[in-house]
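Format is chain and fold; as here:
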Amino acid sequence: MAISEEEIGRALDYLRDNASKDAQARAERIYSESWAKVVLAQEQAKANAPSMAAAQMQALISAPYIAALEAHKAAVYEDERRRFLRDAAEARIEAWRTESATRRAEGKAYS
């Protein structure tokens, strides 16, 4: 399968054009993970429970904590989706490099 220069150009453009969005997705993922911990702690503090274990149990099933988990899930999904797209573009570029090196080596063998 020959990879065209145009395909490589598109892959390079994709990597360049999406770097900021990819960084934002990663930042959202990291932030949402920390935010979920904050919400859990807030919900534990609000719980009127006889023990820490009971307070944690109430916090884990609270609507605010579940919402924070859903937000984290969405952030992880977006970060991973973008990572897979980056990996695909990088794999295409690497395949092109290998293909190009093979063509050069074959050309030298026949010279």
